[in-house]
């Protein structure tokens, strides 16, 4: 009994098959792992691009729908500027984007940013003539992808 644990180390099988591979088999296995990792990266990139386009399109439509900064609705497609557009739709100055610098503080900063994002989306929901509690959905995985689409493409709203 070592370290207070009752474990029989003699039961461990040290004859792992990967140790018995020939160099050709090891090269084929490495090639497979490389292709698998590359395929996963391509898949994740495609998912990222699709989500980014959907979110940018949603923010663009919300800006036009709420008559907020219509001449700058293209901000939805540029990474930092889309945050400024989102804040303008919610009725805040673009300088509130600096609030996200608080996220540098480990736990409390991230929590404060999450609360602020929910508050901003509550204001955006209200600007789209929807109940403001819908902003709470930004905390729910997958619902935070559906909410901007719902707000952008729902029938009621300011024209």
Automatic annotation (TrEMBL):
Where does the sequence pass through the membrane?
A: 27-60, 72-90, 96-121, 133-153
Q: Does the keyword Transmembrane helix apply?
A: yes
Q: Which UniProt keywords apply?
A: Membrane, Transmembrane, Transmembrane helix
Q: Which InterPro entries match?
A: DUF5684
Q: Could you identify this protein by its name?
A: Uncharacterized protein
Instruction: State the organism named in the record.
Output: candidate division CPR3 bacterium
